[in-house]
Each structure stands twice: as structure tokens, then as C-alpha cells.
Design goal:
- Pfam families: Spectrin (PF00435).
- There is one protein chain.
- This protein has 172 residues and is an all-alpha fold.
- It is built from five helices and no strands.
């Protein structure tokens, strides 16, 4: 230590103190630089999370409106087939956003690992809302697809029964 060396060699004291304080300063500067780097990294992560969140919120708003506007089930085979094609096109617009939802959840996980419980809760609230809306949208698409397929089946059976009736009427 510099103090011990000063006691044994008083003439080396000023030089030792200068080199010691220089070492402490460079260590402090390195710590400060590391903290600053960590802070910048955390801010970049937070901004990335916020941008992804905003993109998804805007997408969900548009997608939910579009889904709500799909209208009631068609009453004839051609209308139902058009609606199935329309739903398929809608689903092809929605599916690629699954990657963004997964990325948002991953970003939130990374951010909450380095934050206070209060900050983590502030992140999880909008994340939970996005996840819930996403799940509801996907459930809605699956349910509508099931309804359209059932309607197509019923209409096909009706058409078949009607054709048989017409054949019977023509025969009698």
C-alpha cells in the first residue's frame, strides 16, 4: 500500500500518492464508463420495447376493426366461399405479426430482469393487454373459420337434398 511504503521511504511518498490516485481515478473512470454504457444499452432496449409496443397496438386496432367488419355469415355457397377466401387473406395479414408479439414478450422479459418491481409492473400491464388482445383476435379468426366451414357444409347438404328432391319431383 502507498501508506506503508511512505512510512519506510519518505522520499518516495509524493510519487506513490500520485500514481495511486491516478490508478483510483482511472478505475473510477472505467466504472463510470461501464455504467454509462449499461444505461445507454438499457435505454435502447426500453425504446425498442416502446416502438414494438406502439406498432403492435396500431396493428391490433386496425386488425380488430377489419375483423369486426367481416359481417354476418353468407346465406349461399358462393358467398360463404368468398368469405372463406376473405378470412384466409385476413389471416395471412395477421400471422406475420406473431413474430412481433414474441419479440415484445422477449424484450419485456429482458427489461424486467434489470428493473425494480414497480418498473416491471409498469411494463407488464401494457404487455398483458397486447397479449390478451392478440389471443382474442386469433380465437376470433379460428371461430369464424369454424363457422364458415360449418355453414358451407350445411349449405352443401341443403343443395344436395334439394337436388334429390328436384330429381324425385321430375320423376313423378
Amino acid at each position: 500500500s502507498p501508506d506503508l511504503q511512505c512510512a519506510s521511504s519518505p522520499q518516495a511518498c509524493p510519487a506513490l500518492r500520485r500514481s495511486s490516485s491516478g490508478s483510483d481515478r482511472s478505475h473510477g473512470t472505467a466504472l463510470f464508463a461501464k455504467r454509462e454504457e449499461n444505461l445507454i444499452h438499457a435505454m435502447e432496449k426500453a425504446m425498442e420495447f416502446h416502438e414494438t409496443l406502439q406498432d403492435l397496438l396500431e396493428f391490433l386496432e386496425r386488425a380488430e376493426d377489419k375483423f369486426a367488419g367481416l359481417g354476418p355469415l353468407g346465406s349461399d355457397i358462393d358467398a360463404v366461399k368468398r368469405q372463406i377466401a376473405q378470412l384466409k387473406a385476413f389471416k395471412s395479414e395477421v400471422d406475420p405479426h406473431m413474430v412481433k408479439v414474441e419479440a415484445l414478450n422477449r424484450q419485456a422479459q429482458e427489461l424486467t430482469e434489470r428493473t425494480s418491481a414497480e418498473q416491471a409492473a409498469a411494463l407488464k400491464e401494457p404487455l398483458s393487454a397486447v397479449n390478451q388482445r392478440w389471443d382474442e383476435l386469433l380465437r376470433g379468426v379460428v371461430e369464424r373459420q369454424r363457422q364458415l366451414e360449418n355453414a358451407l357444409l350445411r349449405l352443401g347438404q341443403f343443395q344436395h337434398a334439394l337436388a334429390e328432391l328436384m330429381t324425385w319431383i321430375d320423376a313423378t
